[in-house]
Amino acid sequence: MSSTGTSTSTSSCTTREGTFQTAGCSSTLPILQFIAVAIAIAIQPASIYVEGFSSNVRTKSPSTGLHRRPLIPTQDVSSFNHRSDWNKNKNSKELQVLYQNVSQVWLKNSFCDVFDFETTNENGETVKDITYLANLQIKQLMEHNRSNNRSSADKDSAFRAERILIRLEELNRADTITYNLVINAFSKSTLPDSTLRAEKILNRMEILYQKQIDAVKQYSQCVGNASELQLENQDLLEECGIFDARYDEKIVPSITVKPNVRTYSTVIDAYSRKASDNTDGAEAAQALLEHLRTLYESTGDEELKPNVISYNSVINAWAKTGTVYGVETAMKLLITMENDGIADVISYNAVIHAWARCGSKHSGEKAESILLRMKDRVVMADQMDEDFKEDRDGQSNEKMHVVQFDRMFSSLGSVKPNIRTYSSVIDAWSRSSCPTAARRAQAILNEMEWAFEETGDRSIQPNTVTYSTVINAYARSRDMENKASAALQVLKRMQQVYKSRKNDQAMPSVVTYNSVLNACATTYGVRSRDHNSYSVNEEKNIYHGATGAVASLDDELDTDKSASQSLALGIVKVLYKEMTSPESDIEPDHFTYGTVLKACANLMSPGDADAIPFIREVFQQCCDDGQVSFGVCFQLRQAAPVDLYRDLIPQFAIDMSNGHFVIDRMPTGWSSHLKERRNGHSKR
User: Fold this and answer.
1) Which terminus of the chain is more exposed, N or C, with fewer CB under 10 A?
2) What is the pLDDT of residues 12-44, one digit of tens each?
3) Chain segment 498-515, per-residue pLDDT in tens
């Protein structure tokens, strides 16, 4: 039943969760009744969500003198709508009922419209606040997709959200929360033009906000210049734009839509998500941040002050460009954040990640300098803490001193390096062309291990990714004689700390093993020996595999090759046997087989007696495991003699014009497990 007295029919909508009553759900609703419902909805009281203005848009009708009863109690409206953070009210009984009912409507994909939806509060009163329920439906729509990983449906979800917004705009019921939710929907959408759509909605907000400001000013002038008698004159009120002749009632202009820092940050985040090697996205995010800063500086409005999220999103956008210019721009933003006291560990990690991606030969050095910068700020925070404790009693204005200290301390104390910081620095060194890059990566790992053992701080506990990245640094190194041995030492260290339960996050994965194999495969020969390299004798009879058995390398070494290459090939064969053993918890993937064949091509001589049998064994095992990929076939062609290659690849899968394999013609069973997602740990 609407507040105007118009009777509407109700019908039951059945969902998986049960049955509830809605108004106008039936597809056979008469057209006149539908129009009556729409008119009734259009004249419902709307709540104002911006503090400092009237809480009710429509007031007493001049002609009838009737007051329209708010269908949601005033205190409930303010408690929900004056907050953009919906999570603060999740425990509300009324909110839970609304969430349940709105989700039932959407999950059933019925024809029920939120604009025809009614429910009751705990007092049994009818609740029908269009804006409130529409916002709930938009939020529920996005949460449902996120909880079910419905990436394929996010496009439709964003369009649904915008349709709800357009409907609210037509009814003049959209508020700041509505716009922010829809912008957020497009921000997380995979639509190619999602960023453009998000910014267009922001532009609509800015225009509407200005119109509402003008309307409030006009109303204030009219009221200030009019007598009480004139305020009852409908012609004058209509001329001032505060009387709607259609509904025969007075309208009090209010500001219900106002872009805030959250609005702008969401659009910036949309550009950050779409940023790539092309700098357009990062430049657009930067321009929007500058616009936000200009608005704040010109108005002094704290709701428009750029925050850490705004800056971090732009830094991430520049990091994705993978350019030196991008990381230098990100560094300037970080310095600005430091000066404003808002930089956090995410800010520093983003810039370190940018250095790792940019491909500069100085990436490792620059990334580590930022790590040192963070450590210095932590030391400064600790020193401030000590100084504050010593001189606090001597301060004349202790309260002000405490406030100033808290601000400075929070900005410094929030930059303590964590596992992501250290891992990103190691990654930057692994991508660096510096001759000592691998050793620097190893030194940082050693520092992490020592700090974790001394403090037990799990935020800096080395994990599988950390160790694997150090191994990868060895694999990319070009100046070490026995980098295969160094990589194996890291793997052995992982196995040791994991089995001894000193570090439950250091379990080796298939990626770890593949990185060691790659370090072996890229060992090209003898170079000048250094004090950090390992000798062949150091590796003999000391490798304990994941199965616990001692594996000797004596049988795998070839004295006709250089010592480093012979050792590398021996490590490949030992690791391969371990990974393919029935007792192994590590399941090889197509990268494993491809890297082993790559090692055969680089480390085996044409006259090796065991070359052909070993290559045949590896490829046949790969076929049995359903892991044959383009990369595996490519490496097979590099490693195998022509006769062996033609014997292993079916004739119908070879292009006779050039002798190349055609991956699409391979037996389907050979790649049956290629697309499976593996955790890299267990076959069970």
Assistant:
1) C
2) 333 333 333 333 344 444 444 444 434 443 434
3) 999 999 999 999 999 999
Spatial separation of the C-alpha atoms in residues 603 and 240, rounded to whole Å? 88
3-state secondary structure 369-383: HHHHHHHHHHHHHHH
Residue 531: Cβ-neighbour burial (10 angstroms; 0-12, 13-18, 19+)? exposed
pTM: 0.71
- Distance, CA of 198 to CA of 196 (rounded, Å): 5
- Residue 448 is predicted with a pLDDT of 95
Strand partners, 660: 655
d(Cα 319, Cα 276) in Å, to the nearest integer? 9
Residues 6 or more apart from 87 whose CB is under 8 A from it? Answer: none
Please write the tens of the pLDDT for every residue from 366-391: 999 999 999 998 888 767 666 555 55
Alpha helices in 109-153 (DSSP H): 130-147
Say which DSSP state 502 is in.
S
Tally DSSP H helices, then E strands, for the chain.
26, 10
Amino acid in position 215: A
What SS3 state is found at 543? strand
Q: Which string of DSSP letters, residue by residue, matches 85-101?
A: -GGGGTT-HHHHHHHHH
Q: How far is the C-alpha of 177 from the C-alpha of 137, rounded, in Å? A: 12
Chain CA centroid to CA 95, Å: 28
Structure token digits, residue 296: 């704040």
**Average pLDDT in the 64-91 region?**
32
Buried b (16+ CB within 10 A) or exposed e, 258-296: bbbbbbbbbbbbbbbbbbeeebebbbbbbebbeebbebb
Q: Which residue in 527, 525, 516 sits closest to 573, CA to CA?
A: 516
Cα 423 to Cα 361, 447, 496, distances in angstroms: 18, 12, 20
Q: Which two tokens stand for residue 667?
A: 């037996």
Q: Kindly state the DSSP code that residue 68 receives in the 8-state scheme.
A: P
C-alpha distance from residue 370 to each of 96, 195, 345, 422 (Å): 46, 31, 11, 11
**Residue given tokens 């001193």 in the structure block:** 401
Tokens representing 387 are: 């100084």
Cα distance from N-terminal residue to C-terminal residue, the chain: 60
H or E stretch at 360: none
DSSP string, 1-14: --TTS----EEEEE
Residue type present at position 149: N
Q: How far apart are CA 313 and CA 249, in angstroms?
A: 46
The 8 Å CB, 24+ separation contacts for 183-187 are 183/263, 183/266, 183/267, 183/270, 184/142, 184/266, 185/138, 185/141, 185/142, 185/154, 185/157, 185/158, 185/161, 186/158, 186/161, 186/162, 186/270, 187/266, 187/267, 187/269, 187/270, 187/273
